[in-house]
Amino acid sequence: MRKNGQPTQEEMKKAIQTAILTSDTSLIKAIKVVYGNQTAYEKTLGITETFNKVGFSGFHAQIMTSFAKQIARWEAEKAHAFNSPLSPRQKEIARKIMVHYWKQLVPGFLARLAEQKAAEADMFADCQAAYEAERPKNLCFLNETTVPLPAPKPKAPANLCGKTRPASNPYEIWTSFDGAWVWKVLKKYQSPEAEAKNFYARWYCLVSSPCTMGDGDFGDVYVREIKQSAVRTA
Q: What pTM value is reported for the model?
């Protein structure tokens, strides 16, 4: 993390690629973003005509354009025959391709980071307002001058999972409904109460799936995406 609070390029690359590899929602959004960078002519023919370093490369244009159009048709349907616009095999192919386009997803990543910081700033402002409202109620006298005493700050809920654990001893284990994906929770950045208020709450996990090698991949995963697609098994 840089001194100005912005993530480094390597940190952004890791976060974006981890999201693509572990979240169907992030994968679909990534395809739509990069597809949106294609020209209208390229979208129609499924090719790359203008080599402007945005959109899909000539090698990936045809298959990724077909995936993007399939997603658009699925989203336009009122009733879905399938739970996902892409099949498991298509998602596996798309993930291997989309991790190479992480740079085109940086603007969206920074925008979400700014939203998260804004939410944290709003929470701080609410706490400050509560503090100011309580100050006049507690007074002491010093040299015959009335001095407000600071109101006691509300004690933040304890985060019992804030220390990183080894993969052999996770705090929790979550498994997808089809059993193909497993998230071992090694650290939580916030207490459950704070997570409930934070749309972008994350867990540090070891993720294993058909797309990972060996024991799996380490990285941050959005809490809401785990809970939407898995159940706690340990």
A: 0.45
